[in-house]
Design a protein that fits this description.
The complex is a heterodimer of chains A (260) and B (259).
Chain A (H helix, E strand, L loop, with lengths): L4 E12 L2 E13 L4 E5 L6 H9 L6 E6 L2 E2 L7 E4 L11 H11 L4 H14 L15 H13 L5 E5 L7 H17 L3 E6 L2 H7 L2 E6 L4 E7 L14 H23 L2
Parallel strand pairs in A: 3-8, 3-9, 6-7, 7-8
Antiparallel strand pairs in A: 1-2, 1-4, 4-5, 9-10
Helix pairs in contact in A: 2-3, 2-4, 3-4, 6-7
Chain B lengths: L1 H9 L1 H5 L1 H14 L8 H13 L2 H33 L1 H16 L6 H8 L3 H25 L3 H9 L4 H40 L2 H11 L3 H30 L4 H4 L3
Helix pairs in contact in B: 4-12, 5-6, 5-8, 5-10, 5-11, 6-8, 7-8, 8-10, 10-11, 10-12, 11-12
Classes of the chains: A alpha/beta (260), B mainly alpha (259).
């Protein structure tokens, strides 16, 4: 089966006040259909930039990014993004926020509301339809963010450190909810994180990245079966995978810290 | 009328400090020591006379016409330019410098030039109103647009949002608080522009009446009129502030508490 997402020798640099910064260099990997792939790396390795390139939000300098064999030219209905800081419209209710992408896509009003309400139920927010984001906890706000991404029924879910702004307990709760949602309706997921535990717990494969310029260090297969729950964290395979990744990432982080 | 009363009621503690001040004024005026300062009671009596005789209404009509036309131009053009500058680098570069300069320049110095361009009629006074109120609307709208959360714009884009939809659903609601502040300041400045224009350009309306009283040493009438004009501007801004609070509360308040 051909890969759903192909990233081939992608490079990207920015002009900043201090000159040109190589954000990404020679980044290549593939994501198969229905696969859950995490991009793991320290801050500054360009992983969020890479995710925005896949979404079509950010242009890149050279290389090839293809979805289902077609080059990415901009955002498309086959992809939806979940943002680190939720990116909810503060003046709109939960329901209005979840309906927003459908409004953008000109879905008839009645259908908008019906689909949005379904998703709100699925992420466990029924009863909060008419609440404003500010009155919700971080975990609930990100549930809205997830519902908003899923409401357009994308083939690919792009998640940019979606649980990074949450406390540890809420974070594990949302990880389990995400796995639950994902097992019900297998989307292809590209998940950016700097948490090793999170990457191992959620993914089929992990792409680790090293910084300056951001490039793929390693791609590892997570040696766990797909049927996971919190107990998996105590298995030796999980512990081994986490400690292996910690060893290899430690190197990049220390190089990074020393260079400061 | 109820709303005005309620607004005044809310300011009772502030208004109470005015009472001793007025008392002092009355005493100083009655002492006859200061020839430029008539007793406050005389001023009230003159104010009453000006109102019932219809003299104020007669002059205020023209002032209000100039003011509302000028303000309407400022609001429509100011919002448009503010949004355009906030959204387009090019527009920002082209107009930014003029807006920055004229925002802080003493625009009253430019008013005489308006006469050269528009003559001594109402057009010049309208132009003065625009000159006074336009830039504050532009700058606040522009700043509001620029300060809309970048992540929200990115989110909308990632769902394929068009520029028009982005403006309508993300930029304008996001920029609303600052935009309304600009409009409120614009209202205040438009009074300034109208009265100043009438004094400098063609001695008509309330501004003209001010000049007349001043040049004839009719101090009681002069003070009465000054108080009347200030009261009008303050009431207009208070009413707008109320509208502003209503627009930003309820639906909007939860969003802006932490900004």
């Amino acid at each position: 089966m051909p890969p759903l997402i192909t990233i081939d020798r992608v490079a990207k640099s920015y002009a900043t006040g201090q000159g040109e910064v190589h954000a990404l260099n020679d980044v290549s990997f593939e994501v198969k259909r229905e696969e859950f792939v995490s991009i793991l790396g320290p801050s500054g390795c360009g992983k969020s930039t890479l995710l925005r390139i896949i979404d079509g939000l950010t242009p890149f300098d050279s290389g090839r990014v293809e979805i289902d064999g077609k080059p990415v030219a901009g955002p498309g209905p086959d992809r939806a993004m979940v943002f680190q800081h939720f990116a909810l419209l503060p003046w709109a209710t939960v329901l209005q926020n979840v309906m927003f992408p459908l409004e953008i896509r000109d879905v008839p009003v009645a259908e908008r509301e019906e689909r949005a309400r379904q998703l709100i139920v699925q992420v466990g927010l029924s009863g909060f339809e008419h609440h404003y984001p500010r009155t919700l906890s971080g975990g609930m706000q990100q549930r809205v963010g997830i519902a908003r991404a899923l409401v357009v029924d994308p083939e690919i879910l792009l998640m940019d450190e979606p649980f990074g702004a949450l406390d540890a307990l809420t974070r594990t709760l949302l990880q389990d909810e995400l796995l639950e949602l994902w097992s019900r309706d297998r989307k292809t997921v590209v998940f950016v994180t700097h948490s090793i535990d999170e990457a191992v717990y959620l993914s089929d494969r992990i792409v680790t990245m090293s910084p300056r310029p951001g490039t793929v260090a390693e791609v590892i297969e997570v040696p766990l079966n797909r049927d996971r729950n919190a107990d998996v964290r105590d298995t030796s395979q999980f512990v081994d995978a986490v400690s292996y990744l910690r060893q290899s990432l430690r190197h990049y982080v220390s190089v990074e810290e020393r260079s400061r | 009328m109820m709303t005005v009363l309620r607004l005044i009621y809310r300011r009772v503690p502030g208004l109470l400090t005015v009472v001793p001040l007025i008392g002092l004024w009355e005493i100083a005026g009655r002492s006859g020591l200061f020839f430029v300062l008539p007793p406050f009671s005389d001023i009230l009596a003159e104010a009453w006379k000006l109102i019932v005789s219809g003299r104020i209404a007669e002059h205020a009509g023209g002032t209000f016409r100039s003011l509302s036309i000028g303000l309407a131009i400022s609001v429509v053009a100011g919002l448009t330019l503010g949004v355009a500058m906030g959204r387009s680098r090019l527009m920002e570069q082209v107009f930014g410098i003029y807006v920055d300069v004229l925002m802080s320049a003493p625009v009253s110095a430019i008013v005489p030039i308006l006469v050269l361009i528009f003559g001594t009629g109402r057009e010049s006074i309208i132009a003065a109103v625009v000159l006074f109120s336009f830039f504050v609307v532009v700058v606040n709208t522009y700043t509001g647009v620029r300060e809309v959360n970048e992540e929200l714009i990115e989110m909308a884009r990632s769902f394929g949002c068009s520029e028009v939809m982005l403006l309508r659903r993300v930029i304008m609601p996001g920029a609303l608080p600052l935009t309304l502040t600009g409009l409120r300041l614009g209202i205040g400045r438009s009074f300034n522009g109208a009265v100043f224009g009438e004094m400098i350009i063609s001695v008509v309306g309330l501004g003209g009446l001010l000049l007349t009283f001043g040049s004839r040493f009719q101090f009681a009438q002069l003070y009465a009129l000054v108080i009347f004009i200030i009261a009008l501007a303050v009431i207009a801004m208070m009413l707008f502030e109320r509208l502003e609070r209503r627009l930003l509360s309820g639906r909007f308040a939860p969003a802006y508490d932490d900004q």
